[in-house]
């Protein structure tokens, strides 16, 4: 015959299972994740590099507002670079990550200054691209288009080639 202790433990275990979606299991699930993958490229207007253009990467992962805004300037050849953004995050049980990235430029001649926008739904580096982007070029005169990916899509007027992450 089971003891009172065993019955008590069973009741606690069942209670935990019923309420597990409300529990923060962060100590078990805290991990280093990629909020936004690194991007290096060139900004063009009518095929010509745009020097000294302010480019901003805005990231959101823990609130409804932008959690981080990074601002850089293109070099004399129109080149810009954002490094991969890593963060240690404590996930709740069965949580779907959603990391929002938006890149815009400070250019008064543009009706729409956003050149790249996506919601990253996976924690691996370069998951939002389905590979490593190469030859990244953004043409300011092009319309924003939808680029389908494994985990969603990207709204952008940028173009790139992909290298598999395994290569």
From TrEMBL:
Task: State the organism named in the record.
Answer: Saccharophagus degradans (strain 2-40 / ATCC 43961 / DSM 17024)
The superkingdom of the source organism is Bacteria
Q: What is this protein called?
A: DUF6795 domain-containing protein
Tell me where in this chain the DUF6795 domain is found: 39-143
A Pfam family cross-referenced in the UniProt record is DUF6795
Q: Which InterPro entries match?
A: DUF6795
